[in-house]
Write a structure and sequence with these properties.
alpha/beta, Rossmann fold, 2 domains, 7-stranded mixed sheet
């Protein structure tokens, strides 16, 4: 998809919070987004096309195993040096609120904070974050965090800048072997074991995997998140 005529800003998971000056996208047709997102890879949106991205109260609605991959996809929508503003739930703060307020009424309210309203499809939380899990996933997706705040006593808000392009290797003309090795080095700061090189080459040759699949898998790995956590003392 070409970006001609599109705004420079994108509102991911807009719901009914559609904002002027933004391309408002969502997977729910009931909220009448500007563009209906059809898959978690945003295949109907242009890559590296936007200068800014916001996503408020969305990440917790994505399956826990898919949240690092979602952040990679959001990063791939942004130009290098593009910014992301993100708000999501703070499970530690919600637990602290429950400890402070001992009435059933307030515990019921905070349970909604933790798990969502659950009044319609998609209105439930698959995950929540601590400061460390959120920061590491954002950093691993290629961002540098510029601001990080706790808001309303149960939310995290952050602003981050894209400083690393995890899909940049796709633009280089490399043999399959060189692509796999360079991808491994970029994502994991080490060389791959020979058996993995052979296996991935076979997948590329048969079309079972694409180069983008492989790069995303490496950047979405727990090994990368642990590497990033170590670099930043998290």
């Amino acid at each position: 998809m070409e970006r001609d005529g599109l705004p420079k800003l994108i509102n991911v998971g807009c719901g009914y919070d559609k904002r002027p000056g933004y391309l408002n996208v969502d997977m729910d047709p009931n909220c009448s987004p500007d563009i209906l997102v059809t898959d978690i890879e945003f295949s109907n949106l242009p890559k590296r096309a936007f200068e800014g991205l916001i996503s408020y109260d969305v990440l917790e609605h994505i399956r826990r195993a898919d949240t690092p991959g979602a952040l990679l996809e959001w990063a791939d929508l942004l130009q290098l040096e593009g910014t992301m503003e993100l708000e999501t739930s703070n499970v530690m703060a919600i637990a602290d609120l429950m400890r402070e307020q001992q009435s059933y009424r307030m515990h019921a309210v905070y349970t909604v904070y933790m798990f969502g309203n659950q009044v319609h499809d998609g209105d439930y939380h698959h995950t929540g974050f601590t400061d460390r899990t959120l920061k590491v996933q954002v950093l691993a997706a290629g961002f540098e965090i510029e601001q990080f705040e706790e808001r309303d006593r149960w939310l995290y808000w952050l602003k981050a800048k894209k400083t690393y392009d995890w899909s940049a290797l796709l633009d280089q003309e490399l043999s399959d072997t060189d692509f796999i090795v360079e991808g491994w080095r970029a994502a994991l700061a080490r060389d791959p074991e020979p058996q993995y090189v052979a296996g991935l080459k076979t997948w590329l040759e048969t079309g079972e995997k694409t180069r983008r699949n492989i790069l995303k898998h490496l950047h979405d790995s727990e090994e990368r998140r642990l590497l990033v956590a170590g670099r930043y003392g998290l």
